[in-house]
Structures are given as structure tokens and as C-alpha cells.
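User: Fold this; C-alpha cells only.

Assistant: Input:
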Amino acid sequence: IKAARAASRYGVTISSGGCPAEISRELCSQYDVVLCMTDSLAAELAARWPDLDERFMCLGETDFEEPKFDSQLSWNRLADNMAADINQLVDELTGEDDEYD
């Protein structure tokens, strides 16, 4: 519930009733970039489909993990960190960050 509240601050809906799309070669082929929560997931997908390996990226410099303290503030902070890393990565990929030109 706390994770869903934190996500909703960014317009993201997390529901326990639904299930995310299964990661498949076909799904990954549809996108230029596949953002992963952890380096190990990105490495696993790259090993599974070596021809798509350049598409798999970790969201941030470090892996995202559930907060150690299960408070709303901790979940909000995690959501804020994820949003900042996503925005930074999008800026890098679209060339809007002069540092990475």
C-alpha cells in the first residue's frame, strides 16, 4: 500500500489485481531501451538475448531495493530517487543533458 501511494505521486498505478507483462524477446524487441531495476536483471536479460544486450540498462548507478524502514516517508524517498534517475537517464538518451553530448 505504501509503495502504491508513493508511486501515485508520479501518476503511476500499482495494483495487486493485475500482473505485469511477461518479459519476452518479442516484448524487448519492441523498445529501444529496456530499463531494469537491478544490474543483475539487466545482465540476465543480456545473457538471454545477446543480440539485444545494448537495450538493457539499469535505472541508476546502484540497484533499487525496498526501504529498510517500512514507512511512507521511506517509500516516498525511494519513488523520488527512482524518478530522478529515470529523468536523468531520459535526458542522457535524448541528448538533453549537455554533459553527455
